[in-house]
Structures are given as structure tokens and as C-alpha cells.
Amino acid sequence: MSNGSDYPPVKEDTFCKYVLYYEINNSRVRLWDVIILIPNALFVLFLLFRFNKAQLKLRATSSPIFLTFYTLVWGNVIISVVRCGVSMTVNAAVPLGGLVDKVLWVTVRFFLLATEMSVVIFGLAFGHLDSRSSIRYVLLVTSLISLAFTITQGTLEIVMPDDMFHIDTGNYDLFGHGGMLFWFTSSLVFAVIYFIILLLPWTPMREYLALPSKLSFYVYILLLTLLDAAQATGAGLLAWGALQSGLCVVDVTTWMYFCLYTPLVYRTFLSEFFSVSQPSIMFSYKAQMDEPLDDEQVSLPHQQSFSSLKTDSDYIYQSNSVYDSTLFEAGGTTPMNPMYSASLQSPDSIASGQSLDNILPTGNSQNMRST
């Protein structure tokens, strides 16, 4: 059975198809997997290099949104690296090896699509909420939608493989994204959805949605719109006979999505938070609204002033971000909670001689000793 068009498949000696199945030195290591593995592995090294700093920043804020985004980024890149590694060890020409390879492809697609939808839905509908319950709800909904999508894609891959991705010399099928008709339809739908999101600030819907105001969010949406439109174009060209050009477009957009999407999420939504030396809002009290207070907890005066501020999720999507290092220069007006400075320091640095006298104002440190 075929899930493609009635046109003959692309010749195997065509470069854009050859690069998909060519094995380096006649091994099981395919060039296509190496091309995808290298940028993902480099991004893993980048995350590892900044892991300690990121851990301190995440520990210093009670807001769950940053940890959620950071976990999604790690999950996406790890599963991508695992897929490449496993695909290099299995023989795709063997039925079981080909099945494993396709299952891994759709698994990666599941994680990426769930992240893709979570970022957008949280920004449009729940960006003004910064609680664990709202984040869990968003993740649940997007995971179910993504699961339905990937199950459909995987079923089409196994039951109705696309003739465009059949390799005659090895008598096996490459991963064909569920077939060109499925990929064309789904990519077109996503492109239209993202294009509508770009238009929302100029529609009456802006009165009912807490639309993000950060330019980087709309740049992110624009890039996804262009990517999905290009994927729909490539899949359409393949489905309706423009074989060579269509497959080349499909290859380029596939590489961009599986290699550059996760770094794009990090750059758009996390880089600012991790790059500044000291964020000005340290504790998100609104995030704890759904948790009862203990009897021994005391409401301090400075807590009341902080509770009126926006939550940390707002600063991911809104342009008036408080993560501005200039607020802490001489003459800055925004007070910084001194305990945050202590939270950024490792236990070793504090034990080695840095006491609270170096962190708290003189009066505060004396008051703490007196108590």
C-alpha cells in the first residue's frame, strides 16, 4: 500500500534522496543521522556548560514556568540524540530495525510537537497564570493532542509507507513523515494557525486574550509559520509530481525543525532569564496561591508589595521584563531581596568565608543576630 501520490518515486541516485540513506563506509551509520546528531550534540554540550548556573537560577525562583521550559528543552534534545544513536546501531533494511527507526522518529516528533503547542497555548491562554496546576493542565492537553497526531503519523508510516521513501537496493522504507499528503495537510494547518496568531494583536480577540507583547514571541511564531509553509510546499511538490525540488525542500525543512527548533525555544524563552546576573523578582508568591500556608508562616511587609507584581510567566511573554540588570546599578529604585544573593551562591562559597555580613545590610545582619 502507498501513502504517496501516483507519480513514480524519486530515483535513488538523486542527491536529496541519496543523503537520506547513504551509509558512511558501508556501515550502519547513515549520513542523515550524523547531520542531525552533530547540532543536537553541540546543544547538549552548551546546556551542560551552563548547567550549574541554570540550576542556581532555577533554585532561586519558586516559579514553575522556567523549570517547565527548561525540562522541555532538555527532554527534546536528549530524545533527539538517543534517536540518532539508536538509528546508527540498528539495520533499517531488517523489518524490526526499520520499525524501531520509525517509532523513534515519531517519538521525537511527539516531544517537539508537545513543546511547540505548550509554548503557544501557555502564551495565549495561560501566560497570566503562574501556578503548577495551570502548567500541568496545559501539558496534559498538548500531550494528548500530540499523542493523537503521532499515533496517526506512525500508523500511516507502518501501514501505508510512502513510495517516495522506498529504497529498492535494500528493499526497505525510510521514514516518510506519515506520507506526503498527511505532511502537506498537517503542515498547512499549522502554518494557518500560526499565521492567525500573528494577526491576533490586530483583531478584536486581543480584548479577550492576554496576548504576549514581547517581539521575540512573534518572531518565534513567524519562523514557525514560514517553516510549516515551506514544509507544506515541499510535501505538496512531492505529492503532485515535482520530485527533485520537493524532496530537497523537505530535507532542508526537516533538518531545520529537528536540529534548530529546540535551540530556538531556549533562545526565545530562557536565554534572557539565564543570562542576566541577578533577576529583580526573586520569589513568585502567586505561584503558591494554590498551596495552603502553614500556621507558623508569617506574612512579612515586603511580601505584600511583591505579591502585587506580575508573575514570572509574564516576563517570558511581556515586553516590560523586570530582568534588567540596570535596576541594580547605582540609583536603581527596585529593591532586591538580599536572601536571593545568598541563594545564588553555592554552599561551598558560603562555607569558605562568605557570611551574611557580606550580603545583608549592616542593620539587617545585626537584627538577625539579635533574634
What can you see in these coordinates?
The protein is an all-alpha fold. It has one domain: Rhopdopsin 7-helix transmembrane proteins (Up-down Bundle). Helices cover 62% and strands 1% of the residues. The protein has 15 helices and two strands. The protein has helices spanning 15-21, 31-49, 51-59, 64-89, 95-125, 132-159, 180-199, 215-239, 243-269, 271-275, 301-307, 314-317, 338-344, 347-351, 362-370, and strands at residues 166-167, 172-173. The protein has a two-stranded antiparallel sheet. A hairpin with a 4-residue loop joins β1 (166-167) and β2. The longest helix is centred in the N-terminal third of the chain and has 31 residues, at 95-125. The radius of gyration is 25 Å and the shape is globular. It starts with 14 loop residues before the first helix and ends with a helix. The model is unreliable at 278-310, 320-344 and 346-357 (pLDDT under 50). It is a multi-pass membrane protein. Belongs to the UPF0359 family.
Give the total of beta strands.
Answer: 2
Q: How many separate domains?
A: 1
CATH topology assignment: Rhopdopsin 7-helix transmembrane proteins
Low-confidence stretches: 278-310, 320-344, 346-357
Spatial gap, N to C terminus: 79 Å
* Helix/strand/pairing category: mainly alpha
CATH class category: Mainly Alpha
| Gross geometry | globular
Mean pLDDT across all amino acids: 76
Q: Which CATH architecture would you pick? A: Up-down Bundle
**Multimeric state:** single chain
How much beta, percentage-wise? under 5%
Count up the helices: 15
Q: What is the percent of helical residues?
A: 55-70%
Reported for the largest beta sheet, the result is: 2 strands, antiparallel
Query: What order do the SSEs take from the amino end to the carboxyl end, as H and E?
Result: HHHHHHEEHHHHHHHHH
Q: Strands of the largest sheet, in order across it?
A: 1-2
Cα-atom radius of gyration: 25 Å
